[in-house]
Please model this.
Amino acid sequence: MKFAELAASLDQMEATKSRNELVRILSEVYRASVPDELQPITYLIQGRLAPFFEPVEIGLGERLLMTAIGVAYAAPKEEVAKLNRQTGDLGVTAQRLAPASHADSPSVVEVHRRLSQIAAAGGAGSQQQKLDVFTSLLRDLDSASAKHLVRITLGKMRLGIGDPTVLDALSFAKKGDRSLRPVLEGAYNRTSDLGLIARTLWEVGEPGLDALKVRAGHPLRPQLAERLPNPEAVIKKLGTVGVQPKYDGLRVQIHKAGDQVSLFSRNLESMTEMFPELVAAASDLDVDNVILDGEAIAYNPASEEYVPFQETTARRRKEGIQEFAARAPMRAFVFDVMFRDGSDLTPLPYERRFEIVQELIKSSDTLLTAPLMKTDSAEVLTRELLDNISRGLEGVVAKRLDSPYQAGARNFNWVKLKRNTSGQLTDTIDVVLLGYYGGKGKRAEFGAGALLAGVYDTDKDEFVTITKLGTGLSDEGWRAIHKRLANLEVPVKPARVNSNIVPDAWLEPEIVVEVLADEITPSPRHTAGMTGDRPGFALRFPRIVSLRAGDKKPEDATSVREIRQMFEQQQQPGRGRGR
Ligand code: AMP
Model:
């Protein structure tokens, strides 16, 4: 496939407002591809050269790209900068300056190869080398191709091709319907590599997908926790449970594959560079291949205390890793093991996996076992919860002792119990920002008034609205959020957003915000959970608790299914809301 053909399809995807259309166009692209093209295409359409968990970066920012565009199209730097101020989109800037057509477009594989060459360039003189390759690539392209190439390079695709859209498109391309989704999803949960899945499906067919197993070095999608309103409900539903403290740190998947240690976030992005002390601790383990799951948290040796989430994530910034590691070294509370020396451990009951964890890390003082106590009593569970809260922890996670590790599933194998500020056992909700209003008075200074926010419908792969947000942030917070909003503004409603409400400006769904609300109520206006005969859901008195520091993708926001469950739990007598 020529890159120009892919660019034409990307243009069609950009123009559509319907998610079904998006799936259809992408499935046509897949249908027209040969096996060697599947990985490049799958990564490129998501603004990547490799799966998300591989830290491959092209390494050309806006400034360098402007230089390349100027050189490629013989335009003075000032002219490029001026045009870019007008368009507000460097892709469109390149498109305006590039020739409308080009006789001989390179293939998708060739473009991917040249971008990979740019990504691989490092060390002295590499910047010039990167620029040269990129400039000559631009010269080989027509205007639509140039636009998409620049966006790919910046990782700003603005198409909303989420992972579920890719899975649907693959199923449609092979079967003409969604019937392959479950098999595809299984393989995706085990390997997190959509390109590998696409290629395997084309080369080997469905049995190949079943044969894609958990392996060290490839993150699997994390098991997630459900919620229940109180300890009584937990014991009633799960019987005997294993109870662990819920640490407020960062989820971390620790992989050791021979000499190679890698760390992945909940989003499956690489965190290997961020936490050298965890890497060292994993290297020291007496095992060749292993995958562990846990919560990483910074520890302050002076006060002998664990440091809260916000400070733990401060390390995301590249600078100062070493100083941070000295001042507040990381610990990881390990609570699970999914793989050891060639064996997939995910089917084993949790109790057995936990024993293996204890055995594996018993001599480490950086990888610590998250303590587990067993109970079938609601009183004991309540005591444990309050005890943990009084020790400054978030709450507890209760786990079914006989459950397998179900990659990517949010189910009652694990149940989290937290409390909110007023002492009630309710949980926060993670919403995605979908739009904003101009804003009056004080906040207008910061450019944004109320925000329109939504949750994620996993079945439809859509973002649906649930609330407007206006309170909870400091002036500083509003300023910070406005800065991020400016880059995400789009002229029309994105295809994956389903809304009856029209804000002043639409946003590409990207920013996840944690909110607390008094109640979930039925709503005739909001589309969350709305079906032909049922109203949607809204949040009553929502306030922002925190801006998630990029550890959640929009698809990791609270789902419609969870909102419905929370709504139903609210209706149960004896829950004792009333604040
Ligand atoms: P939430 O992010 O509110 O859905 O809560 C689930 C998260 O709690 C997991 O993704 C982990 O990052 C975190 N967590 C903290 N302690 C534990 C634990 N002992 N077991 C499982 N998850 C834990």
